[in-house]
Amino acid sequence: MNNVQPIGVFDSGIGGMTVVRALTHLLPHENIIYFGDTARVPYGPKSTQVVREYALQDTEVLLQHKVKIIVIACNTVSAVALDVVQKRAKVPVVGVILPGTDAAVRATKNKRIGVIGTVGTIFSHAYTNAIRQVDAEIKVFVQPCPLFVPLAEEGWIDHKATELIAKEYLFPLTLEKIDTLVLGCTHYPILRDVIGKVLHQSVTLIDSGEAAAAVVKDMLSDLKLNNTSTLQPNLQFYVSDVPHKFAEIGERFLGSTLGKVHRVEGFLS
């Protein structure tokens, strides 16, 4: 491996672009390759065996680009397939669940943490188990919020309907007096402001993607693999289907233009 090799990021779709945004903020000189499996999104409702198979295929796409580290931006893959990606990759692999867990445990003062995510992530119990492994005294309260994904993709960030749905979802967590909330889906940071508003800003919000980016930064530093070039970084985006739609929504998630989005030919054959 060498310093100029890219960071590889994959997700079941477009949500992982919030992780790319966090990486570009913390590591502005790094080249990044992103792959979104838009043909088969979402992964959450699928069986563990299928998700593990998909994760290996996603990994192969990134390895073809000779990445120096892989970030699994998908919470579902991080929950059920981290081990198979690590075994196949032969490069460092970072998921989003353990970094998000560590950040939440550090943040909580009253040991009452909430976790929101897709149905698949919530019922995998990945965050609950990880948090309790770090500190068994912490009480974890979970809430699936499936409608947050389409709302984020529609860009309904300040929409009244989004606030009403957020109130409905988050009300049970307010009753539990949580002081920390893990955004356990990479779509959810797009709705960070409305989530904070509903919780009256009294709860610390943990972006698992930001936490993962911080781990990647430390890992690259420890391995002396930081890209020290001052050239404009090369960001490349690949999908398994509908690149034009990915480009449209992805710019909203990244906060900047994407340029050309490439479809991986033969990926599904």
Sheet with most strands: strand arrangement: 4-3-1-2-9-10
SS-based class: alpha/beta
Report the radius of gyration as a whole number of Å: 18 Å
Task: Provide the β-strand percentage band.
Answer: 15-25%
How would you explain this protein's 3D organization?
The chain has 269 residues and is α/β, with parallel strands linked by helices. The protein has two domains: 143 residues, Rossmann fold (3-Layer(aba) Sandwich); 112 residues, Rossmann fold, CATH 3.40.50. It is built from twelve helices and ten strands. The strands form two sheets. The protein has a six-stranded parallel beta sheet with strand order 4-3-1-2-9-10, sandwiched between helices. Helix 10 links the parallel strand 7 and strand 8. The longest helix is centred in the first third of the chain and has 16 residues. It is globular and about 50 Å long. The protein starts with 6 loop residues before the first strand and ends in a 6-residue tail after the last strand. The model has no long low-confidence stretch (mean pLDDT 94).
What labels would you give this structure?
globular; six-stranded parallel sheet; 269 residues; Rossmann fold; 2 domains; single chain; 12 helices; alpha/beta; four-stranded parallel sheet
Structure in a nutshell:
The chain has about 270 residues and is an alpha/beta fold. It has 2 domains: about 140 residues, Rossmann fold, CATH 3.40.50.1860; about 110 residues, Rossmann fold (3-Layer(aba) Sandwich). Helices cover about 45% and strands about 15% of the residues.
